[in-house]
Amino acid sequence: MIDLNNQYTLMKRKIDTAVVRNFFNDTLVEEADRLPIEIIPKDRVPSRCCIYKERALVRYRILTLLGVDLENDDDEFKPTSRYVSEVIEHSEPKLPLLTTITSGCYGCPKDQYRISDACRGCFARPCMANCPKNAIVFLNGQAHIQEDRCIRCGKCMEVCPFHAVVHIPVPCEEACPVGAIKKNEQGYVEVDHSKCIGCGKCVRSCPFGAIAERSELFHVLKMLKRKEKVTAMIAPAIEGQFPGSLGQIKSALKEAGFTDVFEVAEGAEVTSIKEGEELVEKMKEGNGYMTTSCCSSYMELIPKHLPFLKERYSSTLSPMAYSAQICKKKDPEAKTVFIGPCLAKRVEAARYDEIDGVITFAELAAIFMALDIDVNKMPDADMGNVDSFKDCREYAISGGVAGCVLNRIDNPESVRIMKIDGLDKKTVRLMSTWPKRAPEADLVEVMVCQGGCIAGPGTIVKPQVALRLREQLHKAK
Amino acid sequence: MKKSKVKVRICLGTACFVQGGADLLLYNDFLDPEILAECEIEGCSCLEKCKVGGGQAPFVEINGTIYDGVDQEKFVKLLEEAVRA
Predict the structure, then answer these.
(1) What is the largest CA-CA distance in chain B?
(2) N or C: chain B end with fewer CB closer than 10 Å?
(3) pLDDT digits (tens, 9 = 90+) for B34-73
């Protein structure tokens, strides 16, 4: 994945904020068609071929924020304002999760290894000696790769003493752990929804921003605008995403129009207890390992790619699901909105009637910015009695889920833990060998994002920053 | 006479924070220790610069002067200049 700090992220935040601000000011319909021009003024030095293409892409970003499915409903004759008024009337369906912006896609050529000018044509020639397909030839004293023979194994790159071999990947394809990205006949990106596990790695990896999330933000914005009762269910990863404590974030959410704030860590406590009970039971039966089940993307991976794990994952529900149950019990009238770092959570949420909406931290930031809410200046609201589930705030970090489960069973030292910390092609291959070679563990904690939810596709800050801030907040208490 | 330390305030307003300001908080990791020793760095509440318009977040105040669009690279450069001045 590319670094979070890049022009695309900044541009997206700018667009999101402008759209949300206009929505709250009731000016979005009349402004919608002007926004691309305001955001990309004519004196801008473009980073695409011209400002007109940049403006066209801004329009597409607005559409994806509205939730429009560009793959099926990309009407270039239809003004953005018409899309806006339609979405304000009745919301778009929430799935499929991702959509592609074809005109944004560069159409990257197939991934390749290439030998650069740094090649000295050395005497040892380890590239040639190690190439399993004899694909390397020397021309004019420099190595060259014969495309038709190359199998893209990368051995030459590993062995070159001058680092003269470069790998030019297709970022989206490289990032996708399950091969759900394909190219259409014209060479542009398409997402195979039957394979996609919603991890969002491709969204975060494309340097052209050609794969986008069909946002659910407008479902939620409309609730806020109508002044409905809405409970914000905040994921444990939220700590460290904004400049302030959980109490200040709570105040900020209330200022933004949410009527109540619920920590999903409280639902995580239920998950931990039940998963602990199940683990003890399974260990007694002696049938081998059990995996966690709280990562929504992992739960998509199982039926789509690793069906044998159906018998292995814990039947316990996710913290989000339990949180929604608790919230609906407390107040059946209030809508529930999960605010997290995750895109796959939206796929999971679609299965539950108790969850009325899912947005990301980045989208929440757009709401705060649009309403000029400064988290840092908010009063530190009381989070209530958190003693029983305080440790569950660590669900956001790799190792945290297993830790919380162990905290709630007898003899935790007898449990062997294995962590799947981040999913890539290699890990999927490893996991596919488990029927033959079971992992030597009782509890396997699976997190699709490396480092845990704090590295999710909907986060605002880099994981290192989030960790640093969480540390500071814990010290301050 | 011993030179007084360079006073640095990083804006922690939500807009600055989410548009790259948060990265500056890793200053312990990316600043040259020699420069770091000459600076007093703290986060501060919104510098109100974004509200007047002009300039791009994130904002940073160094010895009373406010700079805009400060990424890690610019931050390093500005502090080096301030320390040498």
Answers:
(1) 40
(2) N
(3) 999 999 999 998 888 887 777 788 999 999 999 999 999 9
A369, A372, A468: residue with CB nearest B18: A369
In this predicted structure, what is the pLDDT of residue B4? 84
Rounded to whole angstroms, the Cα distance separating A132 from A155 reads 8
For the domain covering A112-168, report its CATH number. Answer: 3.30.70.20
Confidence at residue A118, expressed as pLDDT on a 0 to 100 scale:
95
Looking at the complex, does the CB of residue A365 fall below 8 Å from at least one CB of chain B?
yes
Q: How far apart are CA A9 and CA A11, in angstroms?
A: 5
Q: How many residues does chain A have?
A: 477
Tokens describing residue A298:
């992992």
Give B-chain residues touching A376 at CB under 8 angstroms. Answer: 12-14, 17, 45-46
pLDDT of residue A5: 79
Which of A3, A39, A369 should be substituted to probe chain B, the one whose Cβ sees the most B Cβ atoms within 10 Å? A369
Chain B residues closer than 8 Å to A460 by CB:
17-18, 22
Domain positions in chain B: 6-84
Residue type (1 letter), B22 = A
What is residue A338's three-state secondary structure?
strand
Helix/strand/coil for A32: coil
Six-digit token pair at A149?
């023979």
- pLDDT given at position A4: 82
Q: How far apart are the first and last CA of chain B?
A: 15
- Residues A122-171 have pLDDT tens digits of 999 999 999 999 999 999 999 999 999 999 999 999 999 999 999 999 99
Contact A374 B22 (CB under 8 A): no
**CA torsion sign, A20 to A21 to A25 to A27?**
negative
pTM, full prediction:
0.93
Question: Residue A39 corresponds to which amino acid?
Answer: I
Beta-strand pair A260-263/A230-234: parallel
CA dist., res. A275 & res. A444, Å (int):
12
Per-residue confidence (pLDDT) for residue A477, from 0 to 100:
65
Helices A7-24 and A51-66, axial angle in degrees (round to 10): 60
Gap from A5 CA to chain B (nearest CA, Å): 6
Fold of B6-84: Glutaredoxin (3.40.30)
Question: Which of B14, B19, B46 has its CB closest to that of A242?
Answer: B14
Scored b (16 or more CB within 10 A) or e, A402-428 reads bbbbbebbeeeeebebbbbbbbbeebb
Q: Mark yes or no for CB contact B45/A369 under 8 Å.
A: no
What are the extents of the domains in chain A?
7-107+179-215, 112-168, 219-476
pLDDT confidence band for B1 (50 / 70 / 90):
low
How many residues can be counted in chain B?
85
Reported ipTM: 0.87
DSSP codes, B20-68: IIHHHTTHHHHS-HHHHHTEEEEEES--SHHHH--S-SPPEEETTEEE-
| Interaxial angle between packed helices A7-24 and A361-370, expressed in degrees from 0 to 180 and rounded to the nearest 10 | 50
Residues of chain A with confidence (pLDDT) below 50: none
